[in-house]
């Protein structure tokens, strides 16, 4: 997509800070940097995706800024990102969410003047909300004239947006990126970064971070508590050959990753950031000294104050686990996330 000159709010999407972590793994003899996407104006990496998909659709003529209605299924960050960009362009936006969407996200969507459709019952066959939300999107598309569905799960402008994410990382580090840890949901972030890495022959080893219970890499489905990374349906953008290795991280490991990050680095990061942190901790002994490692942190912990950063919620879900982030680091081999599985 030819990038046109941006003004106003869209002009400040991207260009997020790369923070060097110094205390997370004291004995680590490599550089560790995190790309903090919470500093986008809508609070997550999905600002990039939302902007790229809508600009792409305007440029291709699929979306008419005068009369189109944007409809998307999202329970979180993409919905907020789209609501923000739709408001900027003056577009009507209907966001299909489900009963698991947090009240904070509903408030945010409504503050941006999105119309919110709540799907209250999961799909009968799978027990998951995603198929039920997608069914509702299709019904709305059929019923509303000039409706446009960005469909982040299959839209090529989703990964394309993240070629820019990787360009920013590579340029800041003068193309020296030995390891990239990125979580997977739609596969947009990882795919776009991998495409940039391949095109520019950076030689970066790509570690995909998925949730235990996600089906993206053909693991058996199981209930998951944290939104963001992982999926109950394999996204069409998935390309396992782009990933050198994949690490599956449990909800508890992701929570411990978030809490440890906050304790050691004062970085308030979201669940998938905790997951990539847990993956790095499990993998760290395999990284040769002197390497440069980058972790992508898709959003901030302020969206998880009722869950990951709420002691009562953590105790209810996992029991008394506070010692896991207050103690010394576990040996890498002892963390379940160390069971990295080669893919492809
Ligand atoms: C917090 C968070 N982490 C990770 C992801 C996964 O990113 P992607 O969809 O680009 O694979 C998402 C996607 O919505 C997200 O919101």
Automatic annotation (TrEMBL):
Keywords: Pyridoxal phosphate, Transferase. Its EC number is 2.5.1.140. Residues 12-299 form the Tryptophan synthase beta chain-like PALP domain. It is an enzyme of class 2 (transferase). Its cofactor is pyridoxal 5'-phosphate. The keyword Plastid does not apply. Pathway: Siderophore biosynthesis. Transmembrane segments: none annotated. It comes from the Bacteria. Homodimer. Belongs to the cysteine synthase/cystathionine beta-synthase family. SbnA subfamily. Catalyzes the synthesis of N-((2S)-2-amino-2-carboxyethyl)-L-glutamate (ACEGA) from O-phospho-L-serine and L-glutamate. This is N-(2-amino-2-carboxyethyl)-L-glutamate synthase. It comes from Kitasatospora nipponensis.
């Amino acid at each position: 997509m030819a990038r046109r000159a941006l003004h106003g709010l869209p002009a400040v999407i991207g260009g997020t800070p790369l923070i060097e972590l110094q205390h997370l793994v004291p004995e680590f003899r490599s550089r560790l940097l995190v790309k903090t996407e919470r500093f986008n104006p809508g609070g997550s990496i999905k600002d990039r995706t939302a902007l790229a998909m809508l600009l792409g659709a305007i440029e291709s003529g699929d979306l008419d800024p005068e009369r189109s209605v944007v409809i998307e299924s999202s329970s979180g960050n993409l919905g907020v990102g789209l609501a923000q960009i739709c408001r900027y362009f003056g577009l009507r936006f209907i966001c299909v969410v489900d009963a698991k969407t947090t009240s904070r996200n509903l408030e945010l969507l409504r503050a941006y003047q999105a119309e919110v459709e709540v799907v209250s019952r999961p799909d009968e066959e799978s027990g998951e909300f995603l198929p039920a939300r997608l069914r509702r999107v299709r019904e709305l598309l059929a019923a509303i004239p000039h409706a446009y569905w960005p469909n982040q799960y299959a839209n090529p402008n989703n990964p394309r947006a993240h070629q820019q994410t990787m360009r920013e990382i590579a340029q800041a580090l003068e193309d020296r990126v030995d390891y990239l840890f990125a979580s997977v949901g739609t596969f947009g972030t990882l795919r776009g970064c991998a495409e940039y890495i391949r095109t520019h022959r950076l030689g970066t080893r790509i570690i995909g971070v998925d949730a235990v219970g996600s089906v993206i890499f053909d693991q058996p489905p199981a209930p998951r508590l944290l939104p963001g990374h992982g999926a109950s349906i394999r996204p069409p953008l998935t390309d396992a050959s782009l990933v050198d290795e994949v690490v599956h991280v449990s909800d508890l490991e992701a929570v411990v990753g978030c809490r440890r990050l906050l304790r050691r680095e004062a970085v308030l990061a979201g669940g998938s950031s905790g997951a990539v942190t847990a993956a790095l901790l499990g993998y760290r002994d395999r990284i040769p000294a002197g390497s440069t490692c980058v972790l992508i942190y898709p959003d901030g912990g302020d969206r998880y104050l009722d869950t990951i950063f709420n002691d009562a919620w953590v105790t209810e879900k996992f029991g008394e686990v506070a010692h896991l982030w207050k103690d010394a680091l576990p040996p890498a081999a002892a963390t379940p996330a160390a069971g990295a599985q080669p893919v492809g």
